[in-house]
Design goal:
Strand content: 15-25%
Structural class: alpha/beta
Number of strands: 17
Distance between the termini: 34 Å
CATH class of the largest domain: Alpha Beta
CATH architecture of the largest domain: Alpha-Beta Barrel
Radius of gyration: 25 Å
Number of helices: 18
Largest sheet: 8 strands, parallel, barrel
């Protein structure tokens, strides 16, 4: 049986360690002139990270045996939970303790998260607690009925992707949204994606008449207009990269993924204008190398500004019309500072009212996530988007399953909303019939504050299915905490 005295001593040591480590981290972050209402969130995030530097599994098991909290659901309230468990252990041992009777203070972190979610997405039109976001297709610019349908089906947020269309089309979408607002009696939140730097394949050259790649083949990837400099006889195909920076950053041994990971390769050698890589994985029947396909360099540190010239131009519209900016390719706190400086130039009086959504889509963004969140939240409302498509390619599909959980935890610890994005109910949206795996995935999205659906011919059916699913799941789980409503099946 667990020894309460030993556990109390262990817990006291843990609390002291967490307090000391989190104070050191908080002191660094607080140099960023953080707005007062975000300071408690920063301190809680620092406490959470300090706590998770420990392996808590033996302590958890012993606490559970005594009927105490296992510490498994403390993301939004780290020190209050640790102190509550310390109080319970002291009471067990008959030692002096102070019992707090302020339950609302204990749950203040989760209440803060709910308040920020409400501010970001607006009031929910349905019974569910998770907001819905829908990506506007290009056709929405000239089809007000589409956006009105979104309003009638309780969608809270519209996403406009600035990688497509132009300011005139975006303006028409927003005007349709405001017309739909009046008819539905509630206001859409407008989220606009900055396109960010696009690392894609350019022109392709067949060197020996070979049209498909197979495992073991060698390919060359060059800087723009670098195909004429590829002469190696063993190279089957050569392709340009639309940006030169990844070629400069690549090193032998680094991995390269092309076309959403359909072609995987490992770099063998590099020079100033190209790299040579061997294909390690593709379809058994081979893969065709095409232009305008994404390229990922997950092992390479890419010195690419997160704001492109196009983004800066688009910001002139976005900063004036969006409720929130989805920041693509953000990888560091410096990237956040770059965007915030640009916003301050465009809206000097009130840019801090704009919400900033951090699209986490690279391995480096994951590594720097706490600093990115704090730097953004220091000055303006902030949220996190788990951009699961690109992120899966960057860190691997197996790692993604774990990482999307950890990002949810960091979001809750920082008390900021999280958007569950990419391929949600994709088969249903495109084909009209869901598969079992994506229904389970969508059900788990209830732990986020918002779920994003992309465009497709069966979007309305997907919204209706997701609405029913989230409504039912709300009764069962809130964040990581099971909700023990009465079971009706047995």
């Amino acid at each position: 049986m667990a020894d309460p005295a030993r556990l109390l001593e262990e817990l006291e040591e843990l609390i002291s360690s967490v307090v000391a480590e989190s104070a050191r981290q908080s002191a660094k972050w607080l140099e960023w002139d953080i707005r007062p209402d975000f300071v408690p969130s920063v301190e809680n995030l620092a406490s959470y990270l300090a706590l998770r530097h420990h392996d808590l599994r033996p302590l958890q098991r012993s606490l559970m045996a005594l009927g105490l909290s296992s510490l498994g659901r403390l993301e939004s309230r780290v020190l209050p939970t640790l102190q509550a468990v310390r109080t319970a252990l002291a009471a067990m041992l008959g030692r002096p303790f102070t019992l707090s009777d302020n339950e609302s203070e204990f749950f203040s972190g989760i209440e803060m998260l709910a308040s920020r979610s409400l501010s970001l997405f607006g009031p929910h039109g349905q019974h569910r607690h998770t907001a819905l976001m829908v990506t506007c297709p290009s056709e929405a610019a000239d089809d007000p009925a589409f956006i009105l349908q979104m309003a009638q089906h309780g969608v809270e947020a519209l996403r406009i992707n600035c990688a497509h269309d132009d300011a005139d089309a975006w303006g028409r979408m927003i005007r349709h949204a405001r017309t739909a607002d009046a008819k539905a009696g509630r206001r859409f939140a407008i989220f606009m994606d900055l396109a960010g730097p696009k690392i894609r394949t350019g022109d392709v050259r067949e060197l020996h008449g070979k049209k498909r790649l197979f495992a073991g083949d060698s390919i060359a990837i060059t800087v723009p207009r670098g195909l004429d400099r590829v002469f190696e006889p063993e190279i089957e195909l050569a392709v340009e990269c639309t940006l030169a920076e990844p070629i400069a950053a690549a090193r032998p041994g680094h991995r390269v993924f092309i076309d959403d990971g359909k072609i995987a390769a490992r770099i063998e050698r590099t020079d100033s204008s190209s790299l040579i890589a061997q294909v390690t994985r593709c379809k058994d029947e081979g893969a065709k190398l095409k232009s305008e396909k994404g390229i990922n360099f997950p092992d390479s540190t890419l010195a690419i500004p997160a704001l492109t010239p196009k983004d800066r131009k688009d910001l002139e519209f976005v900063a004036l019309h969006a409720d929130a900016i989805n920041f693509s390719f953000v990888q560091s706190a410096d990237d956040v500072a770059l965007l915030q400086a640009a916003l301050a130039e465009l809206r000097p009086d009130d840019w801090e009212k704009l919400s900033l959504i951090l699209k986490i889509e690279t391995a480096h963004a994951v590594s720097n996530l706490p600093e990115i969140v704090v730097r953004a939240g220091a000055r303006q409302p902030v949220g996190i988007m788990i951009a699961r498509g690109d992120l899966a390619i960057e860190i691997g599909f197996t790692r993604l399953a774990e990482m999307q959980e950890e990002i949810l935890w960091v979001g809750e610890a920082a008390q900021v909303p999280v958007i569950w994005a990419t391929q949600v109910l994709e088969h249903l949206v495109k084909e009209g019939l869901p598969n079992r795996g994506e229904l389970t995935d969508a059900a788990m999205a209830v732990r986020a504050e918002c779920v994003m659906l992309n465009k497709g011919p069966y979007l309305i059916e997907a919204i209706e299915e997701l609405d029913r699913l989230l409504d039912r799941m709300d009764d069962h789980i809130h964040k990581k905490t099971p909700q023990l409503r009465r079971l009706r099946s047995w």
